[in-house]
Task: inverse folding
């Protein structure tokens, strides 16, 4: 089975550079021999959806693991997701996301501390971003991620809703996923964030209806 790892990435500050260097080594240790693609769509403002889409288009046929440049997954759920993703649905190799503190991240990067060696900044059980596993053809059949999302937020949730409607319910594989600390771009008071969330809600409203989802994707792609 061909497996390609896609990292959407632009090294915009030293913290992100170090996080990505570690994340890439971690993923290469989990999937030795897998092809790795580092993708940047080249938009003036880094566009995560467009960069993911570019990487998947460049990938080999087979399974793609699309992983953020600051995200660490565990081997067992990742391998389970890769094997299961031959069913054409979206698979998430985690049920818990732990966001690591700045201090814990520094201990990992500087001293090789374990990922669970400290109390996380926060934990969620509903995260849909970070790392996704899917057959390349299935990813492309949905139209890919919506490149109309600009800045932080919304595109990963919208893609999950699109996959639910068009491919069948997303599958989670029990396991932990960790996020390395770096300065965040999230600003919930910004107009850009509000526009992204409003766009995400359109996908939420169509998540149970393939016909509505296809029409929504068609309409938004023409804007």
Result:
């Amino acid at each position: 089975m061909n497996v390609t790892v896609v990292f959407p990435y632009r090294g915009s500050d030293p913290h992100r550079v170090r996080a990505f260097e570690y994340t890439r080594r971690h993923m290469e240790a989990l999937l030795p021999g897998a092809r790795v693609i580092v993708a940047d769509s080249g938009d003036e403002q880094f566009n995560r959806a467009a960069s993911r889409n570019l990487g998947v288009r460049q990938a080999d046929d087979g399974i793609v693991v699309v992983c953020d440049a600051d995200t660490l997954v565990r081997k067992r759920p990742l391998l389970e997701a890769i094997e299961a993703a031959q069913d054409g649905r979206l698979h998430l190799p985690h049920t818990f996301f732990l966001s690591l503190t700045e201090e814990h991240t520094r201990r990992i990067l500087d001293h090789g501390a374990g990922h669970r060696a400290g109390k996380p900044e926060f934990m969620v059980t509903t995260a849909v971003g970070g790392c996704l596993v899917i057959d390349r053809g299935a990813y492309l059949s949905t139209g890919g991620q919506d490149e109309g999302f600009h800045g932080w937020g919304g595109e990963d949730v919208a893609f999950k809703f699109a996959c639910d409607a068009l491919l069948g319910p997303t599958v989670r594989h029990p396991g932990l996923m960790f996020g390395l600390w770096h300065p965040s771009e999230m600003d919930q008071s910004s107009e850009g964030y509000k526009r992204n969330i409003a766009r995400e809600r359109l996908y939420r409203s169509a998540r149970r209806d393939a016909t509505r989802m296809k029409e929504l994707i068609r309409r938004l792609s023409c804007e």
